[in-house]
């Protein structure tokens, strides 16, 4: 993939880049992306989401940790697109850090969470991103994310297995 193309990705293309599956796949569509720069994706939040059964039945709210996870999945997609690779079953993206996370408004059934993620820098295998999630143009959350991409073989060695 070239570094200047803007493309959309449907759910089938997303599933080729992420190992996540229902109920943990939290990116429904990529609207646009530019390698080495940024990506915009969406998560359509529906009343059928499993987490709404307990969070909270009387006033459904998408858990903040899942909104952060959706941003991280969006960042992972951007990283793979930037590297021009399709990950294999041994590729794993790990969180290294989450800084400056702020939640500005609740997200619930019927909302479309629009996720904008920008690469801030890549250094020694650590990717740093600025991520913002909005609903109807209003900021719902923002965070600085740091991730690394590893092989499951490397991860097992690091864990002393």
Q: What is the residue-mean pLDDT, rounded to a whole number?
A: 92
Low-confidence stretches: none
Strand count, sense and barrel status of the largest sheet are: 6 strands, antiparallel
How many beta-strand elements?
6
Radius of gyration: 16 Å
- From the helix content, strand content and strand pairing, which structural class follows? alpha+beta
Name of the top-level CATH class: Alpha Beta
Description:
This protein is 21% helix and 39% strand. The protein is built from three helices and six strands, in the order H-E-E-H-E-E-E-E-H. It has a single domain, classed as Thiol Ester Dehydrase, Chain A (Roll), CATH 3.10.129.10. The chain has helices at 11-17, 64-83, 152-158; strands at 29-34, 38-44, 91-103, 112-123, 126-135, 138-151. It is an alpha+beta fold and 161 residues long. The longest helix is centred in the middle third of the chain and has 20 residues, at 64-83.
Compact overview of the structure:
The protein is of the alpha+beta class and 161 residues long. The chain contains three helices and six strands; from the N terminus they run H-E-E-H-E-E-E-E-H. The longest helix has 20 residues, at 64-83.
Provide tags for this entry.
161 residues, Thiol Ester Dehydrase, Chain A, 6-stranded antiparallel β-sheet, 39% strand
Secondary-structure map with pairings?
Blueprint: H1 11-17, E1 29-34, E2 38-44, H2 64-83, E3 91-103, E4 112-123, E5 126-135, E6 138-151, H3 152-158
Antiparallel strand pairs: 1-2, 2-4, 3-6, 4-5, 5-6
């Amino acid at each position: 993939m070239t570094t200047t193309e803007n493309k959309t990705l449907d759910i089938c293309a997303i599933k080729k880049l992420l190992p996540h599956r229902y109920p943990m796949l939290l990116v429904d569509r990529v609207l646009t992306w530019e390698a080495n720069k940024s990506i915009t994706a969406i998560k359509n939040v529906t009343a059928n989401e499993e987490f709404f059964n307990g969070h909270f039945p009387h006033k459904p709210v998408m858990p903040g940790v899942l909104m952060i996870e959706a941003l991280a999945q969006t960042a992972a997609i951007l990283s793979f697109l930037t590297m021009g690779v399709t990950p294999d079953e041994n590729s794993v993206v790990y969180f290294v850090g989450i800084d400056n996370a702020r939640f500005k408004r609740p997200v619930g059934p019927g909302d479309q969470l629009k996720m904008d993620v920008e690469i801030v820098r890549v250094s020694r295998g650590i990717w740093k991103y600025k991520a913002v999630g909005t609903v109807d143009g209003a900021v719902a959350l923002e965070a600085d994310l740091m991730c690394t991409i590893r092989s499951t073989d490397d991860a097992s060695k690091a864990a002393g297995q």
